[in-house]
Design a protein that fits this description.
Blueprint (H helix, E strand, L loop, with lengths): L1 H13 L8 H15 L8 H20 L4 E6 H6 L1 E7 L2 E7 L8 E3 L6 E7 L17 H8 L3 H11 L5
Parallel strand pairs: 1-5
Antiparallel strand pairs: 2-3, 4-5
């Protein structure tokens, strides 16, 4: 475990992150570095290709060691009723079946895995009010003018209905 922790810290250092970085920060730093170092965006020098290889190696290390305990934030209603969520992690997505009555700080184990995710409950902000849509201007006149046949279409209809000349 000590070796894994050292490998993880070294990989995070390659990505320019602190040891406490979460999976979202790791993903963002990886994408940023790969985009900057990719041969399509910069001249492929031995130094840039070496740094790109280090970045890819660091990401593979982080994928193999897994990241620290993830957190997911849910609202109080979801905590009372229970909910199913998908959490994106470095090694792949986790499906969480959060039971009804879960508490703040509880750890829920992912389906088909022994990986745990800490639950954070967002406090309720009060009653939810639904705004009524603004009816806006009366559109009936516009619709009638828009749907009414234009002079050109009326002429085309007259030409089609006109009896052929003898």
């Amino acid at each position: 475990m000590v070796g894994q922790d050292h490998d993880r810290q070294a990989a995070l250092a390659v990505l320019g992150l602190d040891p406490g970085a979460n999976s979202d920060a790791v993903r963002a730093a990886f994408r940023r570095q790969v985009k900057a170092l990719h041969p399509d965006h910069c001249a492929p020098t031995p130094e840039s290709l070496s740094r790109l290889a280090e970045t890819l190696s660091a990401m593979r290390t982080l994928e193999s060691t897994g990241d620290d305990l993830s957190e997911i934030e849910i609202d109080a209603t979801a905590a009372r009723q229970g909910i199913v969520r998908v959490v994106a992690r470095i090694g792949g997505n986790l499906i969480l079946r959060i039971p009804a009555g879960v508490g703040d700080g509880d750890i829920v184990t992912a389906v088909g895995s022994d990986t745990g995710v800490r639950i954070r409950i967002r406090p309720e902000s009060g009653p939810i009010t639904v705004a009524q849509p603004d009816p806006g201007p009366d559109l009936s006149g516009f619709v009638e003018r828009f749907a009414a046949p234009s002079p050109a279409s009326r002429f085309a209809g007259w030409v089609r209905r006109r009896p052929p000349a003898a």
